[in-house]
Amino acid sequence: MIADAPSRAAAAPVPRRRVVSWALWDWGSAAFNAVITTFVFTRWLTSEAFIEPDVVAAAAAEPDGGPATAAYDAAVAVHSTWLGWGLAAAGLVIALLAPVAGARSDDTGRRKLWLGVHTGVTVAICAAMFLVRPAPGSLTENLLLGIALLAFANVFFELAGVNYNAMLTQVSTPRNRGQVSGIGWGAGYIGGIVLLLVLFVGFINPDVGWFGVTGEDGLDIRVSVLLSAVWFAVFAIPVMLSVPEVPPSPTRQRLGFLGAYRRLVTDVVTLWRDRRSTLTFMIAAAVYRDGLAGVFTFGAVIASGTFGFSASEVVVFAIAANVVAGVSTFVGGHLDDRLGPKRIIIASLVGLLVAGSAVFVLHDAGRTAFWVFGLLLTVFVGPAQSASRSLLARVSPLGRESEMFGLYATTGRAASFLAPFAFSTLIALGGAQYWGVLGIMLVVGLGLVLLLRVRVPDHASTATRTSLDR
Asked: What's the whole-model pTM score?
């Protein structure tokens, strides 16, 4: 049974070295978030590199609106749809595994161990993406291989994130939880800036990059992904050395996999009976967080396919987006401890709806429109994500953080089909890629409506650790 946690208002300060080591994992994870899933590898999979050369050539040789252009746009839409289905399948797997994995790591005192294992597998899969090649005659096979690797990497990355997020309570106190969460999330954006700059200067932008790497056979992208895997591995090491392992639970019985699922059902029933707003918050967060993930997952795809950004232009935009997102997340983390995480989340979701709607309406306005409103979108994503993590950490029962974040991941992944499904479905109904933006905004709007129905006491977002009102 999940019991209320005692207050940690008087908790001892956490050594700064421990906070920095924890945040460096977020810094390293930029390799996955910024390079793999958002601005480089995923965009590459849905680019003309994986479209038949004769289709690309015919579309380039005729004015817009002709049959060859329509065939090209149809291929982009199909590939975007396949990407959406692949990520939706990964979300289903995560939904099944995350809560049990989190609970078992708490019970056995192996939170850090499983963080290391899942991070290592993620790194290995990212390195394997080097094998994906846009080879003539096997474009579809290589595209599906890339989507499959991306889906598997998402599964293990999210499982790693369950234990990493749970560590927030080990590296912060109730008085600075929002600030520390913002530091970690902001470090991820800043790490993304540094890594993207390195990749842009060294491999993606020049015709001949470092070590003689060129764009032939997609080598510039493939080397960038391989370097990103190394980056993530290196910066994941400090948290393993500096943050202590949690002790095993003295009261919880060690259960097998199926037994853990039975106990999960019991805990969910307990949440519904005794801490209903905690559960309803998780449900609301599941919906809007999937919309937030969709903004970044499909943002580069939209920039390339709808607004005509080249690979280099996408990376330049990504660098600017990470600067904006990093600054806004640091500011949001500071305001979190003053105003409360729910207020930060609501303001961020409203801002996202305004900016996203502008991107949809102005899809024919050219690159400038995406630069303005695409960057405006990135202002709000980080603060919403960071404040959500902060709020759950404040209300999680003491010693059950991994389990709660596992359930958080499960509710999130139970809804993780929403953004890919809405993105793909709206493209199919609208007949053009930009309709996917509207699908993502519908998911964000639904999450906002659900969040407005969740009651959160003001003192849950400041110095006192407590549960949500029922």
From this structure: 0.71
Cβ within 8 Å of residue 437, ≥6 positions away: 302, 356, 359, 360, 363
Asked whether 221 and 36 are in contact (CB, 8 A), the reply is no
Helix, strand and coil percent figures for the chain, each rounded to 5: 80, 0, 20
Residue 36: DSSP 8-state: I
The whole-angstrom separation of Cα 45 and Cα 188 is 23
Distance CA 287, CA 280 (A): 11
Residue appearing with tokens 């056995």: 108
Number of Cβ within a 10 Å radius of residue 63: 7
Query: Domain map of the chain by residue range?
Result: 16-243+254-461
What is the per-residue pLDDT across 73-103, written as a single tens digit (0 to 9) for each? 777 777 877 887 888 788 778 777 766 665 5
Place of tokens 């479209």: 51
Examine the pLDDT at 324 and tell me if it is beyond 80. yes
- The three-state secondary structure class of 10 is coil
For the chain, what is the radius of gyration of the CA atoms?
A: 22
User: Would you state the structure tokens that stand for residue 307, as one six-digit string?
Assistant: 């607004």
The pLDDT of residue 196 is above 80: yes
CB count in 10 Å sphere of residue 110 = 18
What CATH superfamily classification does 16-243+254-461 receive?
Answer: MFS general substrate transporter like domains (1.20.1250.20)
- Number of residues in the chain: 470
335-371 per-position pLDDT tens digit:
877 788 888 999 999 999 999 889 888 887 778 888 8
